[in-house]
Amino acid sequence: MKKITHITSVHPREDTRIFIKECSSLAQNGYKVSLVVADNKGNENRNRISIVDAGAKEKSRSLRIIKTARKVVDKAIATKADLYHIHDPELLLFSKKLLKHGKVIYDAHEDVPRQILSKGWIPRPLRRPLSFITEKVENHYVKRLNGVVTATPFIKKRFIKINTHSIDINNYPKLKELGDIEHASEKKRLICYVGGISTIRGIFEMVQAMQYVNGKLLLAGSFSNQKERDLVKTFPGWRKVIELGYCDRKKVKKILSLSRAGLVVLRPTINYIDALPVKLFEYMASEIPVVASSFPLWIKIVSSSKCGICVNPLNPKEIGKAINWILDNPKKAASMGRKGRKATQTNYNWETESKKLLNFYRNVVASPTCQNRCRMID
Predict the structure, then answer these.
(1) Number of other CB atoms surrounding residue 24 within 10 Å
(2) Mean pLDDT over residues 157-164, rounded?
(3) Does 188 lie in the same domain as 42?
(4) Is the pTM of this model over 0.85?
(5) CA angle 299, 300, 304 (to 5 degrees)
């Protein structure tokens, strides 16, 4: 097997997990890689990867799930790949069609049924029934695939019961990308947050915390909801926020080089408590201390690495106190940053995960065809 096609109807072509990590690692190791997206930016070849554009995504979620998913699948089939690697739950609905043309792997970025339980745009009475149905549908399709890649060990525990060809490929940072950051020799009192911005990702608490902080917050990312942005801008702490909007990887590196600490104070939702947020490890790889939510898994990572401070993510004063400690103790904070960097070099890096991914691909090739698997299941 030499030809791989990754497919997404949701994510951008520059997606960190899909393009920068998985596709690039495969292309650098002898595979012919295509990536099918739906962003209306046209076809291109980049980093030895052929990017195929299926056109603009449908604006409504319901149409995207059917029409956009069908378009990217049809484009993917046209690439005549040996293996199709799908990245969105709606693409499972077309997995039977893909299996007629090659092997299929599902990449579970999130625990979608649990994620649904915390989606603000879904009416609360509908969340549990929709979560239940989603899990049943996901399980139905996944057990017929050639393999499952998950973003965390927690998600893997669920899928390995359904499909024994399951592995966790953790979303750890690329050391080569973040290891050459040149930090400002005299840093100002700046801390940062990099990533998607929303209520459950702690935007309200972060901004409220800033009213207690003698410093400023570099806020890099896009708001998922305009109303939330309008509301948080009325908070007193907003005057200490420097809003940067969406930033490409080059700008992210610059932000990390200027910052004394990185925030990852996600709210304690069922989807985040066992998550491994890439921003946590990117801060560590960038040699800056972290202020992180006090979830048991995160406490274990941060305390064992001695790379930061864990706080109650719902307590702005506690968050502010942790930020001030880091800003007021630069030598001790720098030591935390070095220890975080060392932990990523030892345990939490993409270079190790990419080897797992390549080995998994080789095992998938040697596994029975889906037709044989389906007969065994049925």
Answers:
(1) 19
(2) 95
(3) no
(4) yes
(5) 110
